[in-house]
Amino acid sequence: MPINQSINKCDWQYIVTTFILLSIFITTDLLGVFDKASLYYSPSIISKEPYRVLTSMLIHLDLNHLFSNLGGIVITRYLLMQIGMKSKYFYLQFVVLYIFFNFLIIWIYDRILFVFFNIIPNYNYLGFSGVIYALFGFLLLTSFYGKKYFLSFHLNLKRNYEIHKMSKIICLIGLIFSFMPGVSLRSHLSGFITGCFLFFI
Question: Are 190 and 97 in contact (CB under 8 A)?
Fold first, then answer.
């Protein structure tokens, strides 16, 4: 397939996202300009260093972690195209809203643990997978119901049984994978819940 047919006007947002993730990885892991320990999310210090809400999703544990999330971008891009996505800005709008609502969901969860169970959460997470799971949550509902608007912007996304079935399978596999050691179940679940919530916006 000619490259001018395989790349469309919407792809700049996926390319920019990929470029940012690759650049951050090179900066932190290969060049050592920044220490990743100062960038990942940790509930114990997030009130003092709120920038970690953003930086935590831009850094990755290792090259395999980075490539798995870049693969997630490619898959979600493909699925979005299959249900009729033509917006030049949806992906970036979705990521920006994800940052706010996902942090809110995690904060509420952590506060419930502390207030009602006197448990002080002690965990760290990093990576773009929360966004990927949010997109799968959004895709799961959109491919079943369709969606005409997002933030009053016209999308006109169509229902698609095949994409819905694929999304369910991927979500199930992802959920099982989230129980593996070193994988943040909390981040993946909060991302999925955030994506389902953003479907109703």
Answer: no
Strand partners, 41: 125
User: Is 2's pLDDT higher than 50?
Assistant: no
Number of domains within the chain: 1
Mean pLDDT of 51-76: 93
Question: What residues make up the domain containing 142?
Answer: 3-199
Q: How many separate helices (H) and strands (E) can be counted in the chain?
A: 8, 2
Q: Note the pTM of the prediction, 2 decimals.
A: 0.89
CA 113-189-89 angle, 5° bins: 125
131 closest CA partner among 179, 60, 63, 200: 60
Q: Which of 69, 54, 56 is nearest to 22 (CA)?
A: 69
String of DSSP letters for 39-53? TSB-TTTTTT-TTHH
| Span 111-151, pLDDT tens digits | 888 788 887 777 788 899 999 999 999 999 999 999 999 98
Report the CATH number at residue 10: 1.20.1540.10
